[in-house]
């Protein structure tokens, strides 16, 4: 693995990483700024920065975020994913390879950088990463400003017999600096369709509550079990449990609020049913009382009529 001094030579002399952000490309090799905390060249790595940002589902090459027209700044919402190319081009000879890691500053924000890994000798061009916001808040990315990867270079024990660049020679295949529409749309805007899945689960459970209002307690328990099962599934898949948990906790909180609202509606409906039942009982009692009163009056009238009739005697 190369140290900062050797990395600096690779950057400034061999243009292994070029161009550099800001005015770093104009600084002299002996400038002490190269060894400061803000330097893109760190003790054993080089920071790679955001270049262009491509958003899945963007239709047409002329629209921002689509093919050949990437964003230079973008706010990534929770659960959303994008493709990011690096501002720097990485050009390696047959003697050097590279490893790329996500910066810890991104992980602390709940950002997951996918398809990050090694770089073969002979590579030439920007790198591309899939970035997913697994956190609870939107995160902004700006071209040339925000670091998206940390590159480490290492020297092979001998030069590669056939570097990557020569392996494509004569095949008719070309490596592209930027993704095409097919590659962009192969990625879902929402990671693993999570937003649609959460919305679908919530809507399905809400519909069940409406249809089965009398069995509210059972529906609530079913909703919770389904939700917990979904959370368990998400937490056991993917490469970063903590990052997924950040996002799912917020979704769980939102769904819990909706659950409370639905339970309150259920309780109100039950109270309304009890009020209707009480009014029906009261009306029934009143109707029965009036019917009993009429029956007693009819009996009294009959008795009065019988007592008022004259008695006819028959003489022998």
TrEMBL record:
Pfam families: DCD (PF22769). The keyword Transmembrane helix applies. InterPro entries: dCTP_deaminase, dUTPase-like_sf, dUTPase_trimeric. Residues 259-286 form a coiled coil. It comes from the Bacteria. One of its GO terms (molecular function) is dCTP deaminase activity. SUPFAM superfamilies: dUTPase-like. Keywords: Coiled coil, Hydrolase, Membrane, Nucleotide metabolism, Transmembrane, Transmembrane helix. Residues 306-316 have a biased composition (Polar residues). The chain crosses the membrane at residues 213-235. One of its GO terms (biological process) is dUTP biosynthetic process. Residues 295-316 are annotated as: Disordered. This is Conserved protein. It comes from Tepidicaulis marinus. The lineage of its organism: Bacteria, Pseudomonadati, Pseudomonadota, Alphaproteobacteria, Hyphomicrobiales.
């Amino acid at each position: 693995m190369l140290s900062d001094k050797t990395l600096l030579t690779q950057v400034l002399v061999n243009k292994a990483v070029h161009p550099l952000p800001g005015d770093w490309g104009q600084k002299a090799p002996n400038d002490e700024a190269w060894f400061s905390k803000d330097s893109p060249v760190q003790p054993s790595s080089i920071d790679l920065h955001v270049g262009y940002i491509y958003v899945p589902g963007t239709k047409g090459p002329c629209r921002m975020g689509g093919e050949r027209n990437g964003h230079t700044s973008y706010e990534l919402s929770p659960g959303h994913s994008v493709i990011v190319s690096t501002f720097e081009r990485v050009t390696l000879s047959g003697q050097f390879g590279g490893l790329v890691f996500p910066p810890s500053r991104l992980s602390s924000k709940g950002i997951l950088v996918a398809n990050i890994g090694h770089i073969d000798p002979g590579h030439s061009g920007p790198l591309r990463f899939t970035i997913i916001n697994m956190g609870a808040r939107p995160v902004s990315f700006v071209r040339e400003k925000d670091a998206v990867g940390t590159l480490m270079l290492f020297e092979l024990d001998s030069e590669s017999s056939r570097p990557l660049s020569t392996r494509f020679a004569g095949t008719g295949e070309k490596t592209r600096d930027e993704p095409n529409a097919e590659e962009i749309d192969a990625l879902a805007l929402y990671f693993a369709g999570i937003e649609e899945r959460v919305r679908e689960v919530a809507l399905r459970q809400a519909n069940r509550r409406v249809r089965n209002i009398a069995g509210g307690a059972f529906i609530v328990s079913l909703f919770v079990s389904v939700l917990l099962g979904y959370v368990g599934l998400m937490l056991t898949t993917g490469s970063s449990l903590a990052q997924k948990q950040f996002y799912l906790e917020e979704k769980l909180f939102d769904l819990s609020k909706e659950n409370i609202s639905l339970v309150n509606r259920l309780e109100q409906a039950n109270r309304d049913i009890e009020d209707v039942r009480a009014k029906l009982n009261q009306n029934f009692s009143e109707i029965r009382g009036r019917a009993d009163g009429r029956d007693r009056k009819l009996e009294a009238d009959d008795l009065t009529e019988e007592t008022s009739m004259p008695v006819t005697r028959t003489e022998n």
